[in-house]
Structure formats: structure tokens, C-alpha cells
């Protein structure tokens, strides 16, 4: 797959058996605006100056305001809807995360996208549990901005 090609994973619950190792993505680029960052800071109370104060952020090691790691992580649904779909699930839920890391910052106005790989599929009562290894990329960046293993449950 080249950098401009996108693979969308579309399957039924039964198709997930044997899908481990399947890669999908990337999603489209999505900008994280300063309005997004300010709204997240207001909602969560995380008003660390590196996120919301231009002067303080300019004096920080980042040199500019940056998005909250958890804001970036929380954008997962918008990206996944584009590149990962289970067609016969009655209910799908985020069950949790096994690992989350934020190796590089996302500057205000930066654009991110997500790539994924199906890491694990486990049968559960009424459906399946799927672990997705996700890598969030910053346009023009050299390192991933977020790496996480998301656990989803697809119930019939």
C-alpha cells in the first residue's frame, strides 16, 4: 500500500475469525484546531498552558501550543468510522485500551490520521472482542503522535 492508498476493513462478526494481522487505513487527515483544544480544556479542566496560552507555550520545549494527548486519542471514532466497519453488529462499544503512548506532540492546527492492524480477536458471549493496534500520524511529522491498542466489543 502506498502513502496515498487507503484500505478500509469491512467485515461481519464471523469474518473476524482469522483476521488477525490485517492492516487498514490510513484515514483522512483531520485538523486539530485551537478551538478544539480550547473546548477540550474547558470540558476537562486541563488548562495546562502548553495547550491554551500562546506565550507560555512558545517558551516551552514545544515552541507552540499543542493538543492534549487525550484529545488526540479521543478522536479515534471519527477516524475508525472511515477505515474499519463491522456490518452486522447490533452494538459496538469501546471496552478499553491496553496500551497508550504519546511519542510526539500535535501542534495546534496540525493534521492527524490513523492506521490500524487487527491484533487479536477473541470470542465473547454474544459477539467478539477485537484489539486494534492504532498509530496516529502527524502530517509532515517523523514520529507517531499516538500509539494505542484499542479494545472493541462487537455484539450481535
UniProtKB/TrEMBL annotation:
CDD domains: NodN
InterPro entries per record: HotDog_dom_sf, MaoC-like_dom, NodN-like
UniProt name for this protein: MaoC family dehydratase
Domain spans labelled MaoC-like: 20-130
Family: Belongs to the enoyl-CoA hydratase/isomerase family.
One Pfam family of this chain: MaoC_dehydratas
